[in-house]
Design a protein that fits this description.
It contains eleven helices and eight strands. With 215 residues, it is of the alpha/beta class. The protein has one domain: Aldolase class I (TIM Barrel, Alpha-Beta Barrel). It starts with a strand and ends with a helix. Bound molecules: erythose-4-phosphate. InterPro entries: Aldolase_TIM, TAL/FSA, Transaldolase_3B, Transaldolase_3B/F6P_aldolase, Transaldolase_AS, TSA/FSA_arc/bac.
Length: 215
């Protein structure tokens, strides 16, 4: 499973990249808004300097023409920009047009299997089901991911599934167990994955025993 990092914070991306855990980056308008004092373009440029993998940058327009115009500008920032579009009819229309131009797309805010089917039919490079937001309303986010996987396998769609709205290490583990293509993970969750108290205890015991050796 590929790991994308779900942040617009360049420092977080740099650190996670040093750990070797960044295959790509996803941002959204809310994440970009947290990075005060920098323009969105500056942020995307800085991220694309850090990371060679796909970097998702989201459009704001609500109509297809506006989305396509924004998408072309975003795509000109760097070769690895992926344009993020909402799962609406206008978003699908823009996705179809952009995919025929060779611009990579990530269709976002996906909450149903039918929506994911439409994204794939429009030629989306990626689809992003939001597991955390579904879990929040007592629907199973991971069940949605499994349904999308079945549908994509049934029809040999190439659209890759990005498990998004990840909130916990359990989401990461569940995504990997069902074989999701990608999970996009917030820095806070990413940095907890390595920890296990028995690892810390084991290191401590080994170091203590090492001190007892007559060297
Ligand atoms: C990523 O593509 C999504 O925008 C992000 O994972 C949403 O996460 P949230 O539901 O925690 O805001």
């Amino acid at each position: 499973m590929k790991f994308f990092i779900d942040t617009a914070n360049v420092e977080e991306i740099r650190q996670a990249n040093e750990w070797g855990l960044v295959d790509g980056v996803t941002t959204n308008p809310s994440l970009v808004a947290k990075e005060s004092g920098q323009s969105p373009t500056d942020i995307y440029q800085a991220i694309c300097r850090e990371v060679t993998g796909p970097v998702s940058a989201e459009v704001i327009a609500l109509n297809a023409k506006g989305m396509i115009d924004e998408a072309r500008k975003l795509a000109s920032i760097a070769d690895n920009i992926v344009v993020k579009l909402p799962l609406t009819l206008e978003g699908l229309k823009a996705t179809k047009a952009l995919s025929s131009e060779g611009i990579k797309t990530n269709v976002t805010l996906c909450f149903s299997a039918n929506q994911a089917l439409l994204a794939a039919k429009a030629g989306a490079t990626y689809v992003s089901p939001f597991v955390g937001r579904l879990d929040d309303i007592a629907n199973s986010g991971m069940e949605l991911v499994a349904h999308i996987q079945s549908i994509y396998q049934n029809y040999d769609f190439n659209t890759e599934i990005i498990v998004a709205s990840v909130r916990s290490p359990m989401h990461v583990m569940d995504a990997a167990i069902i074989g999701a293509d990608i999970a996009t993970i917030p820095f806070k969750v990413l940095s907890t994955l390595v920890h296990h108290p028995l690892t810390d205890k084991g290191i401590e015991a080994f170091l203590n025993d090492w001190q007892k050796i007559d060297k």
